[in-house]
C-alpha cells in the first residue's frame, strides 16, 4: 500500500464520484478505478458500494477513511517539518551569552523567535573562556562573547563596540544622567566590579579605563553578574563601570552616566564552529546579520 492509494481512496470517498475524483487528481478514470480495486484487494474488504448511478462508502470504507485521512495529514506534516528542518526553521538552537552581551542578544532572539516560531532557543550563561570549549564540543551551537579568542576553528561576526558608562547611585553628586564624567574624577570612588575569572576581556577593559584616568580602582565588592552589580549600586554600596548596553537594564535608584574620555572598551561578537553545517545555525547567523545591519554599517 502506497500513499498514492490512500490519496485516490480519499478523493473518491469525499466526492462519491469516480469521474469527479479522477478530475481532481488529474488522472483518467480507468487507472483510478484500478487503483481503488487494487487497494480493496490488499485490504481484503470492499470499501465502496458501486452501482451504475451511485457510489457510497461501506461500513469498512467509512472506518478506513478516518485513518487514511490521518495518515495523509501526518505524511504532509512530516514533509513540511523535514523541509523546515532543511531550511533551519525548526529544531533546537543552544546559544551561550555573557552578562556583558545579553542585551544585544535579547533583541536578536526576540525577532528571530517571532520569525521562526518552531525553533526552540535555549540560552546558557557562560563567560567567554567557557564558551570556547562549549563551542568546540558542540554543547553550544552559537556563542555571544567578547573577543579576542584564539581559535582557527571558529568564525566570528562582530556585533558592537561597547563603550563604558558609569553606574551611579541616583543621589551621587555626579549623577545628572547627562553630563559626561571624566574618568579621573572617579579616582576616589568605591567600585563594584566582576572578578576577572567571570570575564577577562570585560574586566581588563574596565581596569584599562581606570588606568587611562591615572588610577587603580579601589574595589570594595566583586560580584559575578552585572545585573547584581547594578543592584548593589542602587543601595549605595559603590559605583561601577558597565557596558553601554547595560543601561537598558533599568533599576530604581541607579543613573547611567557617559564618560567624557572613554574609548570603546571592548567588542562583542557571535561565534560558531567553522565546520558547523547545521541549517539552524546558518539561518540564525544570516538573520542576525540582517537585524544588526544598521549597527554593522554604522
Compact description:
The chain is an alpha/beta fold and 298 residues long. It is 43% helix and 22% strand.
Walkthrough of the structure:
With 298 residues, the chain is an alpha/beta fold. The chain has 3 domains: 3-86, Arc Repressor Mutant, subunit A; 91-160 and 267-297, Periplasmic binding protein-like II (D-Maltodextrin-Binding Protein, domain 2, 3-Layer(aba) Sandwich), CATH 3.40.190; 164-263, 3-Layer(aba) Sandwich (D-Maltodextrin-Binding Protein, domain 2), CATH 3.40.190. 43% of the residues lie in helices and 22% in strands. The protein has 10 helices and 12 strands. The protein has helices at residues 3-15, 18-25, 29-43, 59-86, 102-115, 128-136, 200-212, 226-234, 279-291, 293-297; strands spanning 48-50, 55-57, 91-97, 119-125, 142-145, 154-162, 164-169, 190-193, 218-222, 240-243, 254-258, 266-273. Strands 4-3-5-12-6 form a 5-stranded mixed β-sheet, sandwiched between helices. Helix 7 links the parallel strand 8 and strand 9. It is rod-shaped, with a radius of gyration of 31 Å. It starts with a helix and ends with a helix. The mean pLDDT is 88. Pfam families: HTH_1, LysR_substrate. It comes from Alicyclobacillus ferrooxydans. Belongs to the LysR transcriptional regulatory family.
Amino acid at each position: 500500500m502506497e500513499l498514492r492509494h490512500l490519496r485516490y481512496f480519499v478523493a473518491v470517498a469525499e466526492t462519491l464520484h469516480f469521474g469527479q475524483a479522477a478530475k481532481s487528481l488529474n488522472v483518467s478514470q480507468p487507472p483510478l478505478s484500478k487503483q481503488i480495486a487494487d487497494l480493496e484487494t490488499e485490504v481484503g474488504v470492499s470499501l465502496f458500494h458501486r452501482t451504475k448511478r451511485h457510489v457510497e462508502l461501506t461500513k469498512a470504507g467509512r472506518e478506513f477513511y478516518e485513518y487514511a485521512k490521518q495518515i495523509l495529514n501526518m505524511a504532509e506534516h512530516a514533509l513540511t517539518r523535514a523541509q523546515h528542518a532543511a531550511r533551519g526553521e525548526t529544531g533546537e538552537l543552544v546559544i551561550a551569552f555573557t552578562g556583558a552581551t545579553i542585551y544585544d542578544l535579547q533583541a536578536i532572539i526576540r525577532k528571530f523567535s517571532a520569525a521562526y516560531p518552531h525553533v526552540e532557543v535555549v540560552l546558557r550563561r557562560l563567560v567567554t573562556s567557557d564558551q570556547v570549549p562549549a563551542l568546540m564540543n558542540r554543547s553550544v551551537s552559537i556563542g555571544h562573547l567578547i573577543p579576542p579568542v584564539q581559535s582557527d576553528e571558529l568564525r566570528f561576526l562582530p556585533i558592537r563596540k561597547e563603550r563604558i558608562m558609569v553606574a551611579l547611585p541616583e543621589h551621587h553628586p555626579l549623577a545628572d544622567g547627562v553630563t559626561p564624567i571624566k574618568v579621573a574624577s572617579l579616582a576616589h570612588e568605591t567600585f563594584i566590579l566582576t572578578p576577572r575569572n567571570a570575564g577577562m576581556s570585560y574586566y581588563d577593559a574596565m581596569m584599562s579605563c581606570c588606568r587611562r584616568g591615572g588610577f587603580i580602582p579601589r574595589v570594595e565588592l566583586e560580584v559575578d553578574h552585572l545585573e547584581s552589580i547594578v543592584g548593589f549600586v542602587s543601595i549605595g554600596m559603590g559605583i561601577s563601570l558597565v557596558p553601554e548596553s547595560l543601561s537598558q537594564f533599568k533599576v530604581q535608584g541607579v543613573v547611567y552616566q557617559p564618560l567624557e574620555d572613554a574609548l570603546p572598551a571592548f567588542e562583542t561578537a557571535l561565534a560558531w564552529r567553522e565546520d558547523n553545517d547545521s541549517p539552524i545555525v546558518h539561518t540564525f547567523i544570516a538573520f542576525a546579520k540582517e537585524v544588526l545591519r544598521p549597527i554593522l554599517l554604522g
